[in-house]
Amino acid sequence: MAFTRGQTQVIYQFLPGAVFEHDQYGFCKISGVELQEKQVNQDAVFNAVSDLLFQWPDDTFRGGFADPRQQSNRRFYVIGTPATVRFEPFPTLLECRRCRRVYRLRDLTRRPNAQPRQCPSCNATLGQLRYVQAHNCGRIEELYYPQNACSRHGSRSLMFLDTGRVRSARWRCGDCGDAEVGRLRMTPCTCQYSRSLGNQQATIYERWLKTLPLTDSALFLPHVVPFINFNEEEERVFYQDPETLALILARTWGILTEKLPETIRERAKRLGARAEDAENEDTADDLARELEKVQPNHPLVLRWKRKKADKAVPPGQAAIDRIRGLLGAGTPSPNTPTPRQLIEHAAILDSLHNTTVDEAAADLASIGDSAGATDLQSAGEFALSELGIAALKTVSDFPIALCAVGYTRITRDPNRSVLTPFETSADGRVPLYIVSSETEGIYFQLDAIRAVTWLIENRWVQAPIPDSKEGAWAWLYAHVPGLYESR
Amino acid sequence: MREAYALDKKIYPEGLELRMRQVLGDQVEQFLHLTAGSRKDWITEVLQPTPMTSLRDVDVGVRFRPDEDADYRDLQWFNTENT
Fold it and tell me: Which of A407, A428, A448, B19 holds its CA 20 to 30 A away from the CA of A134?
């Protein structure tokens, strides 16, 4: 049967640089993964990639990646789903399962009459030596094979004594009565990371290549980031209004009850029309004003006044004014960039299919399951009163996606590793492997007053407790930097 | 079961009715085998599908193949089918 793995498994375990065990060929290293280009939300994916990359404080530790925050650098990347995985057997040091002699593949293939998988000395089966060396910079090597370790017999009867510990493992020569002829080589790496450590004695271990068994999970540590793959066209509307940030805050805090995309579109229409009307309505306005002087309560005058008032206040303006009132000097000025997490939140609320507890309960009641409806409503009340969850919904079309950006070895720590990009495509672009799906999600929003009260009562912040929900949101916005910092 | 699926009422085309009967018969037979052969205490335990154990159960499969640069003769040294 063909060897296959699911796309999500590939993202986490089978990308270029990974070592895995193949059913037929034993341990192998992945040499490349072909990808099928895929259209995804570019801003979302590059935003998530940037968040990951800039966890590496030293830019030489992520030197293979162009800064994706700059639009012009995005051409250096190619985005797609994994399509075919290419591999090659690795490592190629082979050990006889019976006599324990160790051979290099390239030596074996040169021997006349060599039989694949057979020990040339005892004809028993050969298997791979299950150790490799790796370093924090992403380098991976076969164990050093000391072919001249025995001055008399060379590598003819070279055996590896595996004690399970690097310090006590030994190379031995069978023809010398199992005499020790060498130890595992401790090689320092000459990479950028090693150089950054200097030459102090204390860092010597960190500079060495480390010997690891092939099954050690530290051999390949993929860095995968999730992102919300909203429809890019639909998302664009959120960037069209100079007051987007204030509108999104109003929507998040429950001040604006209308859906945001509709509000923004209507505002654009109304503001556009106002400019046009200013040119066309001069005469009509003059006539209406003259009529008003004679008959101030004439129905036409009243209608004209109502229309003028409507046009003067575009939709959402009251909500924006309320935000200004709550935030005072901290109000975002027009055209302030909106943090991506706020855009995503608004998109979840207003562009996906959500079902609230009340709607689900109403559905149950409509099919006669009144007990189920009551249970559901009780659960919603419990969530609010006991858990502090103010809003609870299901999302039926949540467009989650995963993006594998690169990998490290030995550790995930950005201060102690080099993030390596996956093997570049034929045209030299860095691949970003994506798996996207539309799935169900659960949306919940904490009760702002409860969150603020908790922070104050636990003395994280010293301040009076706000008395309204809107006031609590404004308080959080002012005191919790994650809510307003752009990423 | 036949009644629930409105079989024997001449409302389906003949071929479809035949196929539905076959599927229903197979499923009922499978159910009977499953319950008769089970050692569980509750029938619900028998009928609940086992949880998925692998992403391979739900995910699109990606094929693996040896690198085109790999030497076929070298590959044979690792091919367990040669044992």
Answer: A428
